[in-house]
From TrEMBL:
Keyword presence, Signal: yes
This protein's UniProt keywords: Signal
Molecular function via GO: hydrolase activity, hydrolyzing O-glycosyl compounds
High-level lineage: Eukaryota, Fungi, Dikarya, Basidiomycota, Agaricomycotina
Originating organism: Exidia glandulosa HHB12029
Name used for this protein in its record: GH16 domain-containing protein
Domain GH16: 26-255
Highest taxon listed in the record's lineage: Eukaryota
Signal peptide, first to last residue: 1-17
């Protein structure tokens, strides 16, 4: 029943594909395991486009912590007098928070790597001024960018595919407010007859929400980032007590011929 409706040729293609889990769901079981698969902070440093400065390393776990196979990113108000963000648009820093990025880069070239699945489960703050995200962004230049999870101060998740800075495909869905973990997934695949673009399918709790054409994503290396940014696009002021962002069962699966 699983393959009903597929032609024998399509079935043969699926059957011949090999899958490799390059980032396992066990990466948050301990700090030793975490540091095998993840780096602290953004790939470019501690600052980005919101009011949180990221802090964390192998001995500082106030803002980036793992326990019981869950990663918790925590934002807390920063002491007054912080220098502004070093990243455009150079906002004032009101919080210290946590960000991590996977050591494994994501790239689909359509030949040696024919797909990636990127998935995880999340409890994300949707309070005004909180800006957690689970996203892919270009290693070299920008875009491409694909936001698999982005919560911008409302009870919604944004699935975004940045083809250029102004050409953005977005699907906004209601995010459950039950305080439980919910699953997000993106499937990146080549498009038949197309040597430049990819298809990205976005899922919430196993249900397909959107299919985007990702222009010029083919062959582009991308970082996978988990961050708890604050204010910026999520509004201000942020919560006086700060916020948390919890993640578990993050997995990267690579497809090869």
């Amino acid at each position: 029943m699983l393959f009903r409706g597929l032609t024998p040729i399509a079935f043969a293609v699926l059957a011949s594909a090999a899958t490799t889990v390059v980032l396992p769901t066990s990466s948050f079981t301990s700090y030793t395991t975490f540091q095998q698969y993840w780096n602290y902070l953004y790939p470019w440093g501690s600052d980005h486009n919101g009011s949180a400065r990221m802090i964390g390393n192998s001995t500082e776990h106030t803002y980036i912590s793992v326990a019981n196979n869950v990663l918790t990113l925590t934002a807390k108000p920063a002491p007054a007098g912080q220098p502004p963000s070093t990243s455009n648009p150079h906002p004032a820093i009101h919080y210290f928070s946590g960000t991590v990025h996977a050591k494994q880069q994501v790239v689909v070239d359509g030949t040696s790597i024919t797909g990636y699945d990127v998935q995880g489960e999340f409890i994300a703050s949707t309070a005004k001024g909180t800006w957690p995200a689970f996203w892919l962004t270009a290693v070299n230049g920008w875009p491409p960018e694909a936001d698999i999870g982005e919560w911008k101060g409302t009870q919604q998740n944004w699935f975004n595919t940045f083809n250029t800075s102004s050409a953005v495909a977005s699907k906004i869905v209601t995010w459950p407010n039950d305080g439980q973990f919910h699953a997000l997934k993106a499937e990146l695949r080549p498009i038949s007859g197309n040597t430049k673009d990819l298809s990205i399918k976005y899922y919430l709790d196993g249900v397909l929400q959107a299919t985007h054409t990702a222009a010029n994503f083919r062959g582009a290396a991308m970082w996978l980032i988990l961050d708890l940014q604050m204010e910026g696009s999520s509004g201000s002021p942020g919560p006086a007590a700060g916020a948390t962002f919890q993640t578990r069962n993050v997995q990267l699966t690579k497809y090869t011929p």
